[in-house]
Specification:
Chorismate_lyase_/UTRA_dom_sf, alpha+beta, transcription regulation, 7 helices, UTRA, Arc Repressor Mutant, subunit A, 2 domains, two-stranded antiparallel sheet, Chorismate lyase
Amino acid sequence: MTSPTPRYKAIEDFLLERIHGGAYPVNHQIPPEEQLARDFGVSRMTANKAIQNLVQKGYLVRQAGLGTFVTDRKAESPLHEVMNIASEVRGRGHAYSNAVVRCEAIAADDEVALRLGLRLGAEVFHSILVHLQDGLPIQLEDRFVNPRWVPHYLQSDFTQVTPNEVLVASCPISDVEHVVEAVLVDARTAELLQIDPAMPCLSVIRRTWSDDHLISYARLIHPGDRYKLRSLHKRRG
């Protein structure tokens, strides 16, 4: 026998339908819990549970004395740190997964050789992964690694660990360089990210060092409507 649907779930479904359908856009104030309780014939406690669940899932935010508002649920990363994307996604309360597109040794072309400080044609390790949040692609990671510093890179099971975790475990990161720009992507990248090729994307070129050793060069591509970067500068003294 199927268990009856909890009464708070009807309120959750109603609010999610309005959010996903655009009736409740970002920063829109949702009806107060008293009104939701009346409309659905439930107690305020039940309405509060529905709202709190959506707050925990990142759809809503409560502002004391003002009400509850729809949030911007784009995935977010700090710009001045190198974070493990799997930990970021799980830390926001979502399910993380990835798809490994490529993992191989190749000869460095002009761009890769220049970015990694290697001679043209030198062997480098190359991986391409698509990172997903709740089954939706949020990042295409196209990474090149200097084999001298991470010789076991290609033996890693990237369905279980991320490239970031492998690099940090092998060579603790001391310095990082980020170059950010808006780009349009080719048809293959659009297919992997499940987006229209006309959609603007956020590109982050990242190089990482361990002590004075240049370890990795990565191109991180994010759909513009699913991702944002955050930067916080604190004044010293």
